């Protein structure tokens, strides 16, 4: 138990007042632990306020297996924490606190207020209710150890705070303007933990070496297309269908963001300077089906221009670009084209080749991939396997998902687990 006679003493100290940190502190304090939440910013939840465009897509309404499938980097690590506190529990946590929620397309869950501020305010109310002491404007620089045991933290100002258990919830390195500068990795590395290389995920993809391609197509948006990423052996390592937009530097939009982490991880692992991408404009149909349709049009409506086949689905500028690549004039009629030209045209529709040199930098990313090696963290408790009494949760871990509420689900689930089990250890019930 907490030594009430000792100044600055607690049962549990949580470093970082983001999504995982506030959940960890609330969970620990709810069970009776004397809890200190330390945040280097002047206010809580600074990064959380930006999520979902300020609306806060706090989780997904998918069933648990569907949800875990949307967490491509070490999603299996979450089986235990999700068994204790999953997306349904997250929704109950907020709704029981008086915040009404709504489910939008693709199962995305938002507060009915459409404001991230509502989420932060609910956390502030719960932290106050459970008696959490909050210290803002303080950056932790060291986790204190003595004879292999954790006993507290030291801040940049030289202050010391004491506790049997310390939870590291400092976030990643994306959105550095919110204070996410990788402090947690430094703290965990100092304790002997391995840090998997960090890389940007859920970030636009750069294709600057595609020449005139970008200049001609910048600003064009597409719906229901498929983007694929290839490794050095020309094997597809990731493929996603949905919406995409061409930008002045490359591609963005939901499917580009989903593929971006694979672009960075494969390029790093296979030491590639550039990586091959392929864009399928009509993923709903096979090459054979499209070719058969074109042949049928040629027989029955040969006077029609080839581009008429695409008018309903594809923007004019992109049609013009594809025709140019295929060596077909803009007004060319179907009956004027040999079958070989039609086949070349179909190949382009099913696979416009792009060459990427990576993505925008980590500070522009929605998600930091990489982090504290999960091999060194107990998945049932979030406690370090190397340093008893130290726990890690949220983005500091090498676990990451796609956008759509999945990364906040990781934060809330691991934060709850860390807070709950830290109490058990700190209060002598282990």
Describe the protein.
With 430 residues, the protein is an alpha+beta fold. It has two domains: 9-198 and 369-427, FAD/NAD(P)-binding domain, CATH 3.50.50.60; 204-359, no CATH class. It has helices spanning 19-30, 64-68, 79-84, 87-96, 116-129, 183-190, 212-217, 254-269, 287-300, 316-326, 339-349, 406-426, and strands at residues 12-15, 35-39, 59-60, 101-103, 108-111, 133-136, 140-146, 149-155, 160-162, 165-168, 195-201, 205-206, 221-230, 236-246, 250-252, 275-280, 352-356, 358-359, 367-372, 390-392. The strands form five sheets. It has a seven-stranded antiparallel β-sheet. The protein has a five-stranded parallel β-sheet with strand order 6-2-1-10-20, with helices on both faces. It has a three-stranded antiparallel β-sheet with strand order 3-5-4. The model has no long low-confidence stretch (mean pLDDT 93).
Compute the separation of the termini in Å.
12 Å
DSSP E strands, number: 20
Order of adjacent strands in the largest pleated sheet: 17-16-13-14-15-12-18
Provide the CATH superfamily of the largest domain.
FAD/NAD(P)-binding domain
Helical amount among residues, as a percent range? Answer: 25-40%
Shape: elongated
Tally of alpha and pi helices:
12
Count of the domains: 2
Low-confidence stretches: none
Cα radius of gyration in angstroms: 26 Å
Largest sheet properties: 7 strands, antiparallel
User: What would you say the CATH architecture of the largest domain is?
Assistant: 3-Layer(bba) Sandwich
In percent terms, what proportion of residues is strand?
15-25%
């Amino acid at each position: 138990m907490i030594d009430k006679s000792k100044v600055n003493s607690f049962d549990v100290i949580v470093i970082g007042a983001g999504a995982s940190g506030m959940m960890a502190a609330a969970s620990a304090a709810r069970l009776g632990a004397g809890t200190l939440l330390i945040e280097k910013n002047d206010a809580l939840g600074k990064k959380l306020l930006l999520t979902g465009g300020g609306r806060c897509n706090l989780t997904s309404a998918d069933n648990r297996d569907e949800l875990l499938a949307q967490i491509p980097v070490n999603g299996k690590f979450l089986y235990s924490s999700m068994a204790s506190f999953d997306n349904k529990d997250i929704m109950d946590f907020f709704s029981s606190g008086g915040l009404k929620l709504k489910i939008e397309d693709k199962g995305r869950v938002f507060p009915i207020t459409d404001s991230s501020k509502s989420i932060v305010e609910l956390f502030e109310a719960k932290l106050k209710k459970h008696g959490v002491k909050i210290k803002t404007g303080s950056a932790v620089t060291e986790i204190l150890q003595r004879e292999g045991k954790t006993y507290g933290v030291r801040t940049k100002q030289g202050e010391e705070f004491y506790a049997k258990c310390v939870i590291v919830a400092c976030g990643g390195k994306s959105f550095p303007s919110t204070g996410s500068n990788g402090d947690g990795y430094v703290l965990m590395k100092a304790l002997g933990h391995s840090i998997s290389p960090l890389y940007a995920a859920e970030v636009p993809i750069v294709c600057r070496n595609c020449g005139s391609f970008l200049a001609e197509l910048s600003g064009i948006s597409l719906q229901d297309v498929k983007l694929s990423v290839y490794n050095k052996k020309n094997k597809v390592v990731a493929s996603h269908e949905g919406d995409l937009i061409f930008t002045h530097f490359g591609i963005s939009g939901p499917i580009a963001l989903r593929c971006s982490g694979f672009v960075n991880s494969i390029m790093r692992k296979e030491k590639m300077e550039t990586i091959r991408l392929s864009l399928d404009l009509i993923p709903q149909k096979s090459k054979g089906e499209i070719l058969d349709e074109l042949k049928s049009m040629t027989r029955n409506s040969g006077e029609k221009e080839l581009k008429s086949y695409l008018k309903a689905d594809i923007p004019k500028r992109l049609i013009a670009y594809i025709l140019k690549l295929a060596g077909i004039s803009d007004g060319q009629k179907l009956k004027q084209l040999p079958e070989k030209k039609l086949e070349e045209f179909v190949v382009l529709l099913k696979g416009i080749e792009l060459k990427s040199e990576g993505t925008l930098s980590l500070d522009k990313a929605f998600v930091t991939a990489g982090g504290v090696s999960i091999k060194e963290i107990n998945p049932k408790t979030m406690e370090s396997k190397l340093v008893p009494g130290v726990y890690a949760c949220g983005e500091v871990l090498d676990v990451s998902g796609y956008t759509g509420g999945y990364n906040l689900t990781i934060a809330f689930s691991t934060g709850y687990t860390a807070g709950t089990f830290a109490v058990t250890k700190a209060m002598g019930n282990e």
